[in-house]
Write a structure and sequence with these properties.
- The protein is α+β, with helices and mostly antiparallel strands.
- It has two domains: 83 residues, Arc Repressor Mutant, subunit A (Orthogonal Bundle), CATH 1.10.10.10; 48 residues, no CATH class.
- The protein has five helices and six strands.
- The strands form two sheets. A three-stranded antiparallel beta sheet has the order 1-3-2. Strands 5-4-6 form a three-stranded mixed beta sheet, with no helix packed on it.
- The longest helix is centred in the first third of the chain and has 14 residues.
- The N and C termini lie far apart (42 Å).
- The model has no long low-confidence stretch (mean pLDDT 88).
Length: 144
């Protein structure tokens, strides 16, 4: 299992033409293990005692965004959230659901949202991101 993970991480870095550095490998391992977008602070925290400084993490994330293997999912409370770009297209990200009660975010890979096909005069749609808000099953059950 570990060798498959290592191979997947190496393939992602190779596809983005990025060197296989320790911080890059660790960040990808964290994003692969998560089922929701992560902030840079969450990634730094998950790296534990071996983490580089926060500036290195931000620069590493930006190089991965530029390489097309990670994307910026959304901004919430002035914090950018990052995730692997493998479940999205260049122009459309899968929807995300944010619980308005507990704040938990969940990726909705199986929910299809049609791409906007028209925009007002003068506007050009470059990328579509959808964030749905409401109650998650746990909070909905607690309120019932």
């Amino acid at each position: 299992m570990k060798s498959q993970l290592k191979e997947r991480i190496d393939n992602l870095l190779d596809s983005a033409k990025l060197k296989r550095t320790g911080p890059r490998k660790t960040i990808l391992e964290i994003l692969l293990a998560c089922n929701r977008p992560q902030t840079a602070d969450e990634i730094v925290s998950a790296m534990g005692n071996t983490r580089p400084n926060k500036v290195t993490v931000y620069r590493t994330l930006e190089s991965m965004v530029e390489g097309g293997i990670v994307h910026k999912a959304f901004v919430e409370e002035r914090s950018q959230h990052y995730e692997l770009a493998d479940k999205c297209t260049e122009h459309q990200c899968h929807p995300h659901f944010v619980c308005t009660d507990c704040g938990h975010t969940r990726c909705l890979h199986d929910v299809l949202v049609p791409m906007a096909t028209s925009a007002p005069a003068g506007f050009i749609i470059e990328r579509q991101q959808v964030r749905l808000q409401g109650l998650c099953p746990k909070c909905n059950q607690a309120k019932s």
